[in-house]
Inverse folding.
């Protein structure tokens, strides 16, 4: 039944294609979405996924930008972890390494070969005729894990994490941020593109297909998104309380009616 559903979806959305968008060479940036679903695979393993795309400079300005995917994968994490943060940090680290690798390829395409030891800021002498390489593509990593975002953007030390394996992943990511200038952004789960690579859910698949079809993506500030979520949460709470009030009034009316008309 599941195989038949997959075939049906493939035929139903056969018009959706992967299109390379026109992004100016001197403005090209790289963004990646990373996600991990906790213990949803066999033997309590974690299904992870990432998708990398080329974007324009508008992404960092919280404006709509062209988005062209060039690398994606859905896979099982090699290491079983005890928390969602552990799985998310593993997946995010893998995706960031691919994004950094692609940024180096772009730098080499623009300026020719260079020594990776110079790029890594190691104690390697640079010839006076050789310029130190500079990362050309702006890197942006996007996750829907708020704890991962807070751990990478806060000033506190990553060694405070109780899971020391997670602390190592966080330290690697912070080193990548320092070396490449990578920005880490947070988005709500409803807007996470990589969700379609880790969960068999229609909403996640529809979101990925819609963005592939439109070819644009936009981020808003984290504070704005959190304010909207808080407003929606307050609205749901008020609606639930109003519904409970109406239910209570109906029950009281029914009791009063039965007391007046006991035979009915």
């Amino acid at each position: 039944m599941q195989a038949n559903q997959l075939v049906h979806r493939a035929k139903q959305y056969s018009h959706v294609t992967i299109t390379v968008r026109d992004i100016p060479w001197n403005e090209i940036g790289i963004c990646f979405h990373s996600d991990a679903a906790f213990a949803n695979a066999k033997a309590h393993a974690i299904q992870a996924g990432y998708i990398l795309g080329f974007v324009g400079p508008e992404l960092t300005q919280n404006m709509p930008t062209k988005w062209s995917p060039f690398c994606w994968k859905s896979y099982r994490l090699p290491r079983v972890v005890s928390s969602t943060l552990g799985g998310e940090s593993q997946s995010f680290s893998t995706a960031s390494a691919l994004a950094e690798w692609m940024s180096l390829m772009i730098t080499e395409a623009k300026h020719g070969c260079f020594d990776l030891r110079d790029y890594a800021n190691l104690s390697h002498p640079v010839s006076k005729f050789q310029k130190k390489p500079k990362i050309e593509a702006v890197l942006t990593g996007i996750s829907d894990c708020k704890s991962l975002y807070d751990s990478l953007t806060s000033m506190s030390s990553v060694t405070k994490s109780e899971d020391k394996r997670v602390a190592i992943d966080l330290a690697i990511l912070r080193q990548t941020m320092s070396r490449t200038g990578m920005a880490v952004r947070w988005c709500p789960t409803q807007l996470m593109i990589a969700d379609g690579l880790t969960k068999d859910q229609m909403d996640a698949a529809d979101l990925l297909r819609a963005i592939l079809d439109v070819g644009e993506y936009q981020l808003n500030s984290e504070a704005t998104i959190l304010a909207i979520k808080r407003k929606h949460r307050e609205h749901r709470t008020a609606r639930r309380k109003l519904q409970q009030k109406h239910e209570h009034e109906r029950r009281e009316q029914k009791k009063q009616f039965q007391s007046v008309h006991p035979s009915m």
